[in-house]
């Protein structure tokens, strides 16, 4: 792996934290992701299943974890299955985990690590002792499930073979655990953020009238890759001028014009963890009076929203409160009328014309990380805070986004080091 080794204590603890959430006599099966195809014999870069990674640290395809904490025989309480390597695989694909290495990565004793072709034989000694079988599905609220995952195929195969076992959903338990970041996860997210910081400082010295958005993307990639990152956490948005009003603009194909503001929604990946940053900077190094007014309005909303990310607060209420702050800023900018706002339909507030997305989402192994929005905010949760104002008639879109760790007493801005104030941005560009 490109990233530095992670102490296996994290994965040992994650498995231990799952156990009290299971019903009595439960067995859990978690599968790796597939290597996704492109065309012909082409494949995408492998991306591990985040739940499997969270419970094992194994970053390799064709891996399966089985947990059965109450199995009478201790050697069946944690079992890992790996792809068995061969000379052919060594020559064509390179090194795969040995059992000893798997123990090092996961903390599962190597006598409980098997090759995948032994699965049925070992699993047969486990499954009939279990009452409840927890299997994994993608329960992300925004997932468009078009592809059948390895987990989904496994559920079908399991049902065929063991039709009378009671199936349970693992996903809500994983969402519950993963929402609260463990102390060892914070430095991994922080590393992704620090790499993003380096990248942004580099871009501030590079952006000027005439550069193309894709040239900025190339600079970004250079900085990420030389810092042990696999690359971007998500498809980057590098959107100058009117492009910034297209919320998911990813073409990055236009030339940056003198007088435009460019919106950069870019985050690095590190060790499967993600940063999610947005900055909006003037292409020529100086905001116009109007651009600066909109910039400072977004920044004030961001600062007020950040104050509200604290233990005990509820997601929906938080978003309503941020909406009110945004409303008054939009009135101040002359974009909304005070009387019309007073008479608006509360279910369709007028501010949505200029700020049409949410302010925050969970962040972690997924960029839009798993977590339940009806759960009160708690120490250990990591959120983005990302207000924006998009004025299509002015070809101006400004969004600012930081990543915030909730603590017992409030929160820590994990992006506090990344330039944010307009004066600082301008100084660094000139
Ligand atoms: Mn975001």
In summary, what is this structure?
It is an enzyme of class 3 (hydrolase). The protein is an alpha+beta fold.
Features:
Creatinase/aminopeptidase-like; 2 domains; Pept_M24_MAP; 430 residues; globular; binds manganese (II) ion; six-stranded mixed β-sheet; Creatine Amidinohydrolase, Chain A, domain 1
Verbal overview:
The protein contains 13 helices and 16 strands. The chain has helices spanning 9-18, 50-56, 87-92, 99-106, 119-123, 150-161, 171-178, 186-204, 213-225, 289-308, 315-332, 338-342, 422-429; strands at residues 26-31, 64-67, 78-82, 113-115, 132-135, 166-169, 237-240, 261-266, 269-270, 273-274, 277-282, 382-385, 388-391, 396-399, 402-407, 410-413. The strands form 5 sheets. It has a 6-stranded mixed β-sheet. It has a 3-stranded antiparallel β-sheet with strand order 7-8-11. The mean pLDDT is 97. A hairpin with a 2-residue loop joins β9 (269-270) and β10. It is α+β, with helices and mostly antiparallel strands. The structure holds manganese (II) ion. Manganese (II) ion binds at residues 276, 361, 384, 386, 401. The site of manganese (II) ion has 5 residues, from loops.
């Amino acid at each position: 792996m490109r990233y530095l080794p992670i102490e296996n204590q994290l994965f040992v603890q994650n498995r231990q934290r799952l156990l009290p959430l299971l019903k009595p006599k439960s067995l859990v099966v978690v599968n790796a992701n597939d290597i996704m195809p492109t065309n012909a014999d082409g494949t995408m870069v492998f991306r591990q299943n985040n739940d499997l990674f969270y419970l094992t640290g194994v970053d390799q395809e064709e891996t399966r974890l089985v947990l059965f904490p109450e199995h009478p025989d201790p050697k069946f309480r944690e079992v890992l299955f790996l792809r068995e390597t061969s000379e052919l695989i060594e020559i064509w694909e390179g090194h795969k985990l040995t059992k000893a290495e798997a123990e090092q990565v996961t903390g599962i004793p190597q006598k409980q690590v098997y090759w995948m072709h032994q699965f049925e034989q070992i699993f047969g000694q486990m499954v009939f002792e279990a009452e409840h079988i927890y299997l994994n599905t993608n329960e992300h609220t925004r997932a468009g499930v078009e592809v059948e995952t390895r987990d989904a195929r496994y559920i079908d195969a399991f049902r065929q073979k063991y039709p009378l076992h009671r199936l349970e959903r693992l996903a809500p338990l994983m969402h519950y655990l993963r929402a609260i970041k463990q102390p060892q996860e914070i430095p991994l997210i922080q590393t992704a953020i620090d790499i993003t910081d380096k990248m942004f400082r580099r871009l501030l010295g590079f952006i000027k009238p005439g550069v193309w958005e894709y040239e900025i993307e190339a600079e970004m990639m250079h900085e990420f890759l030389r810092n042990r990152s696999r690359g971007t956490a998500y498809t980057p948005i590098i959107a100058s001028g009117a492009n910034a009003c297209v919320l998911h603009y990813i073409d990055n194909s236009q030339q940056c014009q003198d007088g435009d503001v460019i919106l950069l929604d870019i985050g690095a990946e590190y060790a499967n963890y993600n940063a999610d940053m947005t900055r909006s900077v003037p292409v020529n190094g100086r905001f116009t009076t109007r651009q600066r007014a909109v910039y400072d309005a977004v920044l004030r909303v961001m600062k007020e929203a950040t104050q509200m990310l604290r233990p005990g607060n509820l997601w929906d209420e938080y978003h309503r409160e941020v909406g009110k702050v945004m409303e008054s800023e939009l009135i101040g900018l002359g974009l909304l009328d005070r009387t019309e706002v007073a008479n608006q339909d509360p279910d369709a507030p007028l501010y949505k014309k200029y700020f049409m997305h949410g302010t925050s989402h969970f962040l972690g192994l997924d960029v839009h990380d798993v977590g339940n929005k009806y759960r009160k905010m708690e120490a250990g949760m990591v959120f983005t805070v990302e207000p924006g104002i998009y004025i299509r008639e002015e070809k101006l879109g400004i969004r600012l986004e930081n990543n915030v760790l909730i603590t017992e007493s409030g929160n820590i801005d994990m992006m506090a080091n990344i330039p944010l104030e307009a004066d600082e941005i301008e100084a660094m560009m000139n």
